[in-house]
Write a structure and sequence with these properties.
heterodimer; A: about 500 residues; mainly alpha; B: about 190 residues; flat
Amino acid sequence: MDIVSILLNLLTPSVFLVVFAGVLVGIVVGAIPGLNGAIGISLLLPLTFTMEPQIGLLLLGGIYMGGMYGGSITAILINVPGDVVAAPVAMEGYPLTKQGRAKEALYYSIFSSMFGGFIGVLILILFTPPLARLALQFGPAEMFFVSLSGLIIVGALSGSILKAALAVLLGLFISTVGVDMITGSERFTFDSIDLRSGISVVPVVLGLFCFAEMFLNIGKKPSEQVQYRDQKILRMTVVKDILSQRFLVWKSGLIGTLVGLLPGVGTTLAVFMSYGDAKRTSSRDVPFEQGNPDGIIAAESANNATVGSSMVPLLALGVPGSPTSAIIAGALVIHGIVLGPSLFVNRPDVAFTFLYGMLLTVVAMTIIGAVGIKYFSYILKIKMEYIVPTVLVFALFGAYSLRNSLFDVFIAIVLGIAGAIFKKIHVPLAPIIIGVVLGPLIETNLARAMRIAGARNMPLWEYLLATPLSKGLVVLVVIMLLVVIRMRHKEKVAAKEVNNA
Amino acid sequence: MLLKLPVTLPVIKVIHRSTNVCAQMLSNLILGVVVLLSSIFFYLQTTDLPERSALFPQFILWGLVIVGILLIFQALLEGRKKVSQEVSEARREERGQFNDILIFQVAVPGGLLLVAYGLLVSVGFYPASTFLVFTIYSYHAYRIDAANLKSALWMRAIFFALVITLFMYLIFTLLLGLPAPSGALF
């Protein structure tokens, strides 16, 4: 697909409108403590069913991008990070607010997010098509290792190893419910017609993320209202200062990009790593935890860089890099679009319009963020008593609308109750979702590999490691795992420092 | 079922022996037992399946059995550690808070959602959503402060429930033409 057709697809008022709306929703939900981009995407899911797939995808991509930035607003203004990801920004941004420099901190946040966002999307544009071309050569053995790597890494990163393993296995188990596509046998259906078609990923996400999160928000008191004195500062002054720290921006953006590329790893690691690195290398006289802009630059560049790069494994391999991208994958099912290497062959219009359209989400985020600063304090006035019931009914509708199934609604409610309990007993939820998504990929490819190995009269492991590509993948997975474990250790040290402070 | 007795007996002993069991440890213990027993139950369901269909779920269920056993052992080992009076007090408080969360932030809203689901099936989505918004709005206000439950709040809750329902009807049904779950009324 040539660049002119892509631009013709993109440069239409409807695309601009959808992208801006998506980013705005993302910023608002990201800014409200207790909500996040994943919840925003889940709520607007039904809207995408009537849209062209590429436009629907851009709406969701816009929410993802905006949501990543939005979390920093409450962190800076009232010292309440919308998510743990925004904790380092709160550490540096809130002291600036107390000094009457909230606007400056918000400018640092938005322009660093812009640079990070661009780096991530550039990687998305440059790396996804070649990776998809390479993935077309993948056989069952390679696909098995790729999907397994996602599970191993997500498991290795999520809190207690035992509970992460439980979450991963639970997700895989959920994916086995229904009719087995290979033999046609019913598994764990207990003669229920509804269970025969299996448990779809969207009600799982809605249950574990929307319902569980809203349950735990019930009874939360309203956030502190912000009253800050604005010191005048020009946007260009901040941009110039960020550009003077371009090495930090690139380094943090690349850390975010690399971490985002690993399936299932998440943003927290990237943010804490970049923040920790900035803390060690900053040349400014201002001490950290007292309003050092380098902390904001590093955390926000890394944070938004993960958005683009986490979509690379989703689009090129069909392996979601985060719960948010798992919901996006689920949303595309309704359009009959299968993510993975074949997407670039079967629907290049969708794939390339989305890749380049993500640049628009960065532009939209920058415009809304830079112009809308004076309105951000209004977001903080939205009360939880209005948010919780609204999110719950929208999520009920979203759960139903994917397959017009009341059973999906029931599943979402049951998993919502389970998810709230899991959250309180520290069982991570993201690996459950990644397990549900990757389960069929692992099982199908394992079954194919076994069939081929059987036909060739060779042991399974020998077939799995027969090609240089699969051997290379195994080595890559081991290296990734070691790197991730090391990074996790570093993240823990950085998080400890943040907590102590 | 064979594993049930040796595992659950020490479990019960630990729960009764020590009142200073922290909420986290107790929850790990219960989680381990639930995971173990349900894995065995589901494993038994796979025995009638063709070998190829049973293989992958059996791998997973074996994994879950191991995780369940390890969770139980971890909790039992934690339970044997002696702790000071202060830690014991803190743990008791933690357990109380945990029970509060289970009742007021999981069981009650979960129950309300299940009632809303019943309404959804019987009378349709829009009446069910009005009910859910009204009850959750009121319950949220009650959880912040029971004194909030005054007639003005009920009126606000009804008004807000109607506005949200109307908004959803306009967007999803009239504008986008998406089907909503229908019941006897809608």
